[in-house]
Amino acid sequence: MKINILKNYWELGSVVADIVEHALTLPEPKLVLPTGSTPLSLYKELVNRDLDWSTTTTFNLDEYLMNINHPYSYHSYMKKNLFDRTNIYPDHCNFPFRPTLSFEDKIYANSGIDLCILGIGSNGHIAFNEPGSSFKSRTRVVDLTEQTIKDNAKHFDSIDDVPKQAITMGLGTIMESKRIVLMANGKHKLNILNVAVNGEVTESVPASILQNHKNVKIYYCE
Ligand code: PGA
Fold it and tell me: Is 0.90 surpassed by the pTM of this model?
């Protein structure tokens, strides 16, 4: 695994948009999609390209345990930044739900994931698999760490509004994707990214599990 360094945030969005655009040419593409600050340039670029999403099915990585109609839920984020701005069918857009194993069944029923796009948290989490998550973990309800709550407070009116729990796709689930792309943006991510890519493969750095996957690309920009 190596870190591909890109010029800027817009190039990050454009390079990953090329990969998504290619995936959309598959017969019935299945994508896993992230939220957060990092993929915003990707979604903007994808919307600008005016692609055909009519045969695509998506699975989001995670969702807070909160009212999904809340403006700061990941359902709302995806509608605003991508789904409402493409021709994707709302019925084809899936988010982790309870019972969590039914969500997993839905992925299997769709014959697996072609492409999984990930971000990385400053503590090395991928999706909401916080440090210490089992490498075999499946979709489940998790407690968010203090660090993640602090990092994500920027998306809420106050830190007290950040939900303390979420439903996340598991590390075992993510690793079954045929292809994985990890996007990271900002100097504050570089240290953890280096640890994940070059350090020990350990459950205390969830993203280090990606060293065990055969088809991973990592893109970083300051
Ligand atoms: P960010 O979040 O893109 O808002 O930095 C990434 C993550 O926590 O996975």
Answer: yes
